[in-house]
């Protein structure tokens, strides 16, 4: 059985780090450009201390099988619009076809509604498209983001 909970970065970071590496190895486009995985743990800790970091952890039998990390803060152009902006999310490969991701996002939505969030942004990498999940959950296309690697 999968359980979801809000956990503190400072409590779970070391435990979840191997999953971050797995995530990086599987889908990172930065890796393709020689950019190593170097999480800014001090920045995460500062956002946690400021109360703007949201970390939802999915566990099965006590073991982390997924996570959703985001920042909750007013939008820079719309100060009265509390926004949930994505950092990263990941579900282990063997839990992707059983509804774990959808259930995790539903858990996140319940929590951010409780916090008064007005807009929830998510993103899907072109090379690892999860549009079907987002549409199932009621998200609508909002903006397309482009990237151009200019420094190697």
Automatic annotation (TrEMBL):
Residues 1-152 form the N-acetyltransferase domain. It comes from the Bacteria. GO terms for molecular function: acyltransferase activity, transferring groups other than amino-acyl groups. This is N-acetyltransferase domain-containing protein. It comes from Paraburkholderia rhynchosiae.
